[in-house]
Queue: 2 jobs
Job 1
Amino acid sequence: MLAAAAAWATAAWPAAPQLATNNSIGSLLQQGGASDFSRVEILYVVPGGGPGSDGFPVWTRERSVAAVKDWRRESRCRPRRAPAPTCAFLALSCGSLNAPSARLPDGRVLFEAMATAQYLTEEGGVPTGIVITESFSWDTVTNALALRFAVEAFSALRAAPLDLRVFISHFHAERFEANARWALGVSPSLDGRASLAMHPVPSEAFGDPSALATRMEHEQRGAAVARENAKVVRTLAELHAFVLLGGHGGLWGYMHMRHSPSKGGGW
């Protein structure tokens, strides 16, 4: 069934025309089989977090299912297989600092964004050519920075602002939004390049109400930290410094073998 769905998603994919802009990068971008993204208006964003042994945790599946449902309902996304589509998907996250990475049969790392992309195309029926992935982010802060990279990338192809629709577990929505607005808002601000809308997705990941309450407190603290950091880190260069030069204590500690696992249990 999965193979059949994958074949449907990629079969008879019409040849993409050259980009509708004068940007000479257009033909280079399409060499790998991607679509002409110059007309994309809506970007469906599916963050990951805490992949575990199979690479695709329940909360990431829930987010993916909700995003696909919205895509199928959205009239602006039709026709589904247009050579210059108006909608695209962005799968975020390599994995998590707090969970083992899944592995491919040959031992290579299965990045979480790969598993999300596989679900979107094989089970969700999303054409492969409109699913974008990234290989940079490992937590909420870097998820947000990768989202900024994507907005900047689309800005190279089109002047119109993007409609960003982030499908995120309800328990993580406040924290993700705080980090995303921080990353998009640092100078030079991309606020005029994209409108950010959060779509909280109910999650069954926490069956115990007390566990959910504990998690929500953890997330609220994380959101508060992001908002405080945004008052200090106000330019893109400063955000890069924060991530690379020690401000991000979780990443810095992990890379120097001094990692303290988060009590959040996925994100």
Note: Strands lie at 42-46, 87-91, 102-103, 109-110, 131-133, 162-169, 194-201.
Job 2
Amino acid sequence: MGGSEARRRSAPRGGGDEPTAEDLAELARIVRTLGDALTRAERDTMEAWASTRTS
């Protein structure tokens, strides 16, 4: 289990903790991996959906 995962599992839920650089790097890695697995059309659909979820 990675360090950031251990912190997340031991941290109280809903605590409002800011993500660490390590957390953001892990998220970026996951997003890249998912992006590599998606077709261009699937990416366009996902990006359109995500744009409705941000302000």
Note: The CA atoms of residues 11 and 17 lie 9 Å apart.
